[in-house]
């Protein structure tokens, strides 16, 4: 792969206040770009001033949705290092997603090098306040200007960076979830296992109705075939602790293979907790709740790391989990994972990568 | 709605040769744009020189796929009028799609007016050779620059135009279709009934494999639940003529409500042919073929109008339909619909609209 050309911005933006960063609202001074054409393959890797992309209105991404993305964070560690968490997994996953969407793969080592190079250029943008981080959004879009349903001959791979505030400002906060019988996120044979924009577009209406009609902050998606088996929560993987055992939906082709999911399974097993990856139905969860065996429910994802679920609303039944407070297992997973990410817990797993 | 501001291009492009237009490759001198913000609603409708869209790399369309589109054609009629075919249906459908994808609706009369105004500006671009037309692509994309899975507060509605050659240069040509057991286009509860980019992204890999591995030019999609019932062919609706009756999959939430589909049903019924909109399984079709009752199969869509299917390949079975030649019913539908579109057949249905 060619070296990365760097063109520095001549006018740097003022950095936003760390107290009010929010999520995905501010973007740094530079971005990484690389082009693909059928003739040249991936070429012209460059870091340039952050600014608008000029795209022909016929660019295929607008019409046929050929696009994939990733999400991860850079953390300023307690000893002032810059740490990434398992970026090799994001590299693998973007290629997995690209395969499903007929986008050409990127060299995985180069993907990580591109992240690292951009983050080094933007190191001053990584916030230092407790719980803050620099969110990293790599994405690929089809840029050929042609109508007609087929794979594009041209793509743009971009990485943008956004400093983000603490997800939880006052400790973990359980959320209330709407179990959706009506909308379906994805089905086997579709694109649910790929991180592609269409999956998210399809989830918006259910999310909105869950909020407006049921005062729930997220949706729990059921499978599209029997409308019975648990898939994901919002855009997170989901775990259920029932009578001492932790259960999470198996990778069945319609759910995303989360990197936090994988790390959580790893840690739980190390701690001697039995983890099953298998089909689990909403009925089984309701029964466990009735029997007093549903101990904890939590989502896992890059943004929240661990998102405890305090209540489920399904078919007019409202169940409360662990009295609506964060369970011990959720808390320990959160503390351990964020501990590793911020360099407070020794990384004996080799999960962190320095920039 | 505000009047449409028109800013003419000072340098017009040379028009491409009508013999070699192809599809979706050339774009005209101007495009229609209109912005939406939560504060102002839809505003600033304008026709401006065709050129790149400048979009922040964080624009939501790139990440969460919030977008919808339409497709229709302007025809130069035999008496030198410019005709549109049922544009009110496209206006209705873009709003139907937008509702599913949480995009604000557009005034339907204004949608048609915008098409007409742009086409009048670009009238010289409508080709006149037999079978040619001006393809019209209205689309809406989410333009707010923010990461975070939610509906955008900003959108762009655009219309671009592309002169297109005859779909069939030497008369209708039956295609061979691969019946896909592996990939699924859409499922009930998902977005299959909306014209949104994600549906097309999800179809690319199956289409590519059908071509490369089975020498089939399109995929016949089965339902995602039982993998048994017919959904669509490629990006067309599909019809089966069995023992004198015409059957097409019912509008079940996972297939697109095609405007050509609707027109075909209307014409067939007028001609006294019984049309059923119902579930139809691939087994039923294979049985009909075995019994010598499968008379015709054809796809319907804006691009091809009628696309006769000459063969189906399913589970290593290769069946030939009507000896691989275009059936009488397919041909009559094609001749009538294109006849109406080009003003050769008197439009007693009120389907054509002048520009």
From TrEMBL, chains A, B:
PROSITE patterns: AA_TRANSFER_CLASS_4. It catalyses: L-valine + 2-oxoglutarate = 3-methyl-2-oxobutanoate + L-glutamate; L-leucine + 2-oxoglutarate = 4-methyl-2-oxopentanoate + L-glutamate; L-isoleucine + 2-oxoglutarate = (S)-3-methyl-2-oxopentanoate + L-glutamate. SUPFAM superfamilies: D-aminoacid aminotransferase-like PLP-dependent enzymes. CDD domains: BCAT_beta_family (cd01557). Its cofactor is pyridoxal 5'-phosphate. The keyword Magnesium does not apply. Coiled coil: none annotated. NCBIfam families: ilvE_II, PRK13357.1. This is Branched-chain-amino-acid aminotransferase. It comes from Paenibacillus foliorum.
